[in-house]
Amino acid sequence: MKKSLKIEALSEFLGTSLLLLAIVGSGFMVSKLTDDDAVQLLINAISTILTLFVIIKLFSEISGSHFNPVVTLLLRSRAHFSNLKAVVYITAQILGAIFGTVLANVMFSDSAIQLSNSNRINSQTFIGELIATFGLLFVITLRSFESHILVPAWIGAAYFFTASTAFANPAVTVGRVFTDSYSGISANSIAGFIAAQLVACLFFIFIRPLLVRIKNS
Question: How far is residue 60 CA from its own chain's centroid?
């Protein structure tokens, strides 16, 4: 692997780790602070929003700040880089997500690796993931130069208006299997979530040329 690709992969690993550390760590913290579901969701969303802003800004000039396999797949479909780079990025993202989750577990519990019992998949959350993922790719495609602002804003808003609370990221979904905290998702649920995310990605890739024409008209 070339040196530059190793650095880019490290960037994707670190950024995704920090994202999961924020999501899972704040999930543990809110459970200690309050039993109010609305307050828990709000604090979890704020932590995610702020961390997304920081990591996108920090790593954008190194790896492009994907931190998400569907973003990598979208950009690969536009021939921005090789298949090898896509595989390396996605691998780094998934490993980073698991590592960030384990770090959060270590800080807040007695077990570094846990398995979530939170079953989240149903028809409503499937639709929520379709909407959250499609909207994320829409924002990135049409206003990529403002991603450090618009991506956190979209995900933060979608926490509240989608039934799934906007995972919108296969790496995040896998990582959150390994914590039995407020932020966790059971292994039985991840297939449905990731399927929705990939369907949204494929559909967006299909209609993207039309959206770009509308934007440029």
Answer: 16
pLDDT at 216: 75
- Residue 158 to residue 172: CA distance in whole angstroms: 15
Task: Report CA torsion sign: 191, 204, 88, 166.
Answer: negative
pLDDT at position 83 is 93
Alpha helix segments (H runs only) across the chain: 3-33, 37-59, 69-77, 83-108, 123-142, 147-161, 170-175, 187-216
pLDDT of residue 13: 98
Query: Is 0.85 surpassed by the pTM of this model?
Result: yes
Specify the pLDDT at position 3. 64
* Residue 68, both tokens: 């998400």
| Distance of alpha carbon 203 from alpha carbon 185, whole angstroms | 25
Close Cβ partners of 50 (under 8 Å, ≥ 6 residues apart): 22, 152
- Sole residue written with tokens 């618009």: 150
Positions of the chain with pLDDT under 50:
none
d(CA 139, CA 151): 7
Nearest Cα neighbor of 191 from 112, 141, 120, 95 is 120
